[in-house]
Amino acid sequence: MLIPGPIAGRRRCATVIASAVMCSTVFTGQDLAAAGGAPTPSVPAPKLEWRACVQGSQFDCATAKVPLDYSNPRGRTIELAVVKRKATGPGRRIGTLLFNPGGPGGPGTVQMPQNYEAFPQEVRERFDIVSWDPRGIGNSTAVNCFASPEEAEAWNASKPAGAFPVGEKGRTAWIAAYKDLAHRCQQRDPELLRHVSTADTALDLEQLRRAVGDRQLTYLGISYGTILGATYANLFPGKVRAMVLDSNIDPQAWTNHASDDAPRLPTFLRMGSDRSAAAVLDQFLARCGSTTTARCAFSAGSPKATRDKFDQLLRRLREHPVGEWTYARTVGDVVSGLYIVHPGWTDVAGRLQSLWEGRAPEPSTPPPAPPVPNPNPYLGDEQAGAVLCSDSPNPRDPAAYHAMEEASVTRAGDAGRFWTWATSGCADWPAVAANRYRGPWNKPTAHPVLVVGTTYDPSTPYSNSQAMAEELADARLLTNNGYGHTALINPSSCIKAHEGRYIIDGTLPPAGTVCRQDRPPFLAPKPRGGVATGGGAMAGIVS
Q1: 481 φ, ψ (degrees, to nearest 5)
Q2: What is the mean pLDDT of the chain?
Q3: Residue 132, helix vs strand vs coil
């Protein structure tokens, strides 16, 4: 909610959410709102000693030391890996933009450099852009429930392949594997597990703001980074200078309305991710079927014929996998592939056509490694799970997920299986967050927040962005009429122009503004925007 952050170069971004996410429903830790709000960090701001990440890199790296437990600042400390790209416009720098790439579990030290060019040019010119691996993740002090890579590989091999289990035998093995993972995590570092909540990371964000020397926070968060941003905005409302929240999570769905009652549904079904993914899949198949195989390899000549072809392929894969490509792996691959329109949708169509012809798809070429010391940190299932288990309630009975899966299938088809099981591992998760934030979400901020939502998003439904804009005390909704997860990596010149003006001088788009993506799916590239085409930066605007 890759939520993964859905980051270019990590094509199967949804696996950060869908195969790794595990959320606890036990909330007996301190509620920050009930305790009177966030504690102001009583420790000095971290000292960031910047150095080139690797020789010749344009990115600088540093390490921030922060308390594991802010209520005990003299106790154990942990490390946060931090990365920066300096503002490129000499003499025009305004400050620092802090960026969270979502997930949870997204390593900012990798994903910000990978996607640096996606930020609006004027923002890159006038702001240092800084990101970090949140506590528990990647190159920071990380949750790791295995003693060796070999142990982690053995555990992965013990659970059914794919994004969800299929059949009674598969469900039994899946539940047993995640119960075993929970036991391993409890044994390794139980103290860390209790201090990786969103509220804890919001306190780290405040420390990073202080460390870079900005009087107020300028922030961009995508997917899970939106609930992090909303948490910060309500813990430190007076510190908000500018905040862009792109592809949002509804805070009420995330917290199960701050209820202490056992939840009836898992997080992503409360959000409506299953229905949203189904709607995007419908669009994918309809658009594919409306064009030629030269543009969409899986096209059967019409939307209906292409849908029928897809359904037939999935039925066939349930009985006869193509090599390692099972029904569950294929569904997970399709939902994940819908996150990024270009080249994601074309690549998905190509893989589906290969499977239709009885051939295993060719492995994808990995993206170039960003120029950072460790571009491939360990990102095991337990990292995303540890964060989500601190915040978002999910049913505690593993046996209940099958019935919820079948109910979701009736409204969302195959995508319902994917999103139902995404948080099933939390049924046995051992840790309870020591600090969590469940609202209120409407504390007046020093400056308004810009909320961006995409109409066809396979992970965070557009309705969640509408809800976020309603929940926050002072927010403006900017609509991206298009496809994929996050406007940041599914570009719209119109969205970027509005974001750039807002981040630089606080100018909000007019109420009700709707933008279009620059390139719809399966269409030949067309020049858009810019002086040469006569379009200007706002060429993609609808209203």
Answers
A1: -80, 90
A2: 90
A3: strand
Least confident of 128-132, 148-152, 305-309, 533-537: 533-537
Beta-bridge mates of residue 96: 128
In angstroms, the CA 473 to CA 251 distance is 13
Assess whether pLDDT exceeds 80 at residue 236. Answer: yes
Mean pLDDT to the nearest integer, 278-284 = 98
Task: State residue 41's pLDDT score.
Answer: 58
- Exposure letters 156-194 (e unless 16+ CB within 10 A, then b): eeebbbbbbbbeeebbeebbebbeebbebbeeebeebbb
Span 364-411, pLDDT tens digits? 888 889 999 999 999 999 999 999 887 899 999 999 999 999 999 999
**Inter-axis angle of helices 273-289 and 401-412, nearest 10:** 40
Q: What are the distances in angstroms from CA 111 to CA 130, 374, 475?
A: 11, 12, 27
Cα torsion 131, 137, 142, 148 to 10°: value is -130
* 25 closest CA partner among 408, 436, 439: 436
**Full-model pTM:** 0.92
Q: What distance in Å separates the CA atoms of residue 178 and residue 158, rounded to the nearest whole number? A: 10
Q: Contact at 8 Å (CB) between 249 and 3?
A: yes
Using alpha carbons, list the distances in angstroms from residue 447 to 151, 245, 474.
48, 14, 8
Question: CA 291 to CA 93: how far, in whole Å?
Answer: 46
Give the count of beta carbons closer than 10 Å to the beta carbon of residue 245: 28
Radius of gyration of the chain (CA): 22
Indicate the angle between helix axes 344-356 and 273-289, nearest 10 degrees.
70
CA distance 107 to 136: 10
The structure tokens 């994917």 sit at 418
By three-state DSSP, how is residue 63 classified? strand
Q: Check if the beta carbon of residue 127 is closer than 8 Å to that of residue 96.
A: yes
Minimal CA–CA distance to 450: which of 385, 408, 529, 508?
A: 508
Q: Say yes or no to pLDDT of 534 above 70.
A: no
Which whole-number Å values give the CA distances from 12 to 45, 112, 412, 433, 543, in the listed order? 36, 17, 21, 29, 33
Residue 539 has pLDDT above 50, yes or no: no
Residue 4 in 3-state DSSP?
Answer: coil
Q: Which amino acid is at 326?
A: T
CA 385 to the chain's CA centroid: 13
| pLDDT score of 16 more than 60 | no
